[in-house]
């Protein structure tokens, strides 16, 4: 898009007025990336004067386009408007005038998706669901950093001209539903006066009336923030149950609009209402395909032909946020040598990406973490029976089923099915595996340090409850990481003392502790 095309759109949107000469020059220079001081110097004006002209310009455009326009986002706004019509078409002015009159948009916290890679299949499916199948509720699900928000942003840009009203909001800070509903109802009623509903139920009814009267698209991001932590994923936090009522009514009542939501967890509403041929659909967002992941890495300075590039993408399962973080590490520490990076460690988790997984892990109950630790110790897909054998008798089959279902809903574990036996097995993605091993070793080390200080065997925690070795598997990675964690520290004598103390207890109490300590002593001695 050129600056001349942008100005043509502005001329149509501002009719019967138009930009004055100074405003147009400020716009042209801003388009070229100039700051206010640079524009002032070029035009021979005072910098403060140009800054004020800029403020007036963005306010004028905000009123014309009915959304917040700033120096930071004005190109994105104009690209959206240009996508609604062909600016080279002879009928462009008429079309743009109609759009300016009939379309109401508030993009809120929508991302800039001018740089976007892949997701063609996902975009095609979502567009069909919303524009052809007329789905009333669509959920994009997946762990943090996968690009759900960017995917929704690209989709919304592509289908915006199918809707009279479009509004984008985030519930990141878990606002009361009444505030969100008030905001939505005010937006949809901007051309008419309505009485303010007094209850949440009446607010939802008012919203549904707008969704029936007009073709509307509501985008709500960060839905997981109104869901509670703990064993059972998908249920609402105390005081936020009305969010579920909103979804239920939007999904079940007749209207011509769509609610698109993004979440790291699948809510119980979506789980129960969604279906392949129903007006509620859910899409599990996964990593980028290798070809698209390579395009992403090109922006980080790679050529696309480096040795180890395919292995790097596979290690991180095409996870966009992880690849961006690791690409920076490879460029800054290894001078862009991917093979050298992989040779140092099969998998590295940067601080930024670790923080993303922290947010998921913090929502788990103690039982959820216990299951994650057993999956990390196994280091490979394991069956329900295997996990049950490790947790019995303290955890029932129904409790284990509930936890596994919640971990799947939270996008933390992967389920595989044996083609021959049709038996399901569960495992962790490599990056989640690495993180969970690190958490396990840190927690176990803290338990050992606590026992060394208090001499209280009851504090052994993970060392008692989880086996580092069994008949099927020895997780050498965990033993190696433990050795690295305690390297240079005097731990051999305290561990031997623990062994002596444990001899006084029955197996029912010490469980895996004795065998684990013998393993750790062997690793320390090595």
Q: Tell me the fraction of residues in β-strands, as a range.
A: 5-15%
Mean pLDDT: 86
Strand order of the largest sheet: 1-3-4-5-2-6
Terminal-residue CA separation: 64 Å
> What is the helix fraction of residues, given as a range?
55-70%
Please state the overall shape, judged from the principal axes of the Cα atoms: globular
Number of helices: 26
The largest sheet, given as strand count, sense and whether it forms a barrel, is:
6 strands, parallel
Rg over C-alpha atoms, rounded to the nearest angstrom: 28 Å
Low-confidence stretches: none
Class per helix and strand makeup: alpha/beta
How many beta strands in the DSSP annotation? 9
Q: Give the oligomer, counting copies of the same chain as homo and different chains as hetero.
A: single chain
Question: What would a concise description of this structure say?
Answer:
The protein has 526 residues and is of the alpha/beta class. The chain is built from 26 helices and nine strands. The mean pLDDT is 86.
Please describe the structure with a list of short key phrases separated by commas or semicolons:
alpha/beta, six-stranded parallel β-sheet, three-stranded antiparallel β-sheet, globular, about 525 residues, HTH_VMAP-M9, NB-ARC, NB-ARC domain-containing protein
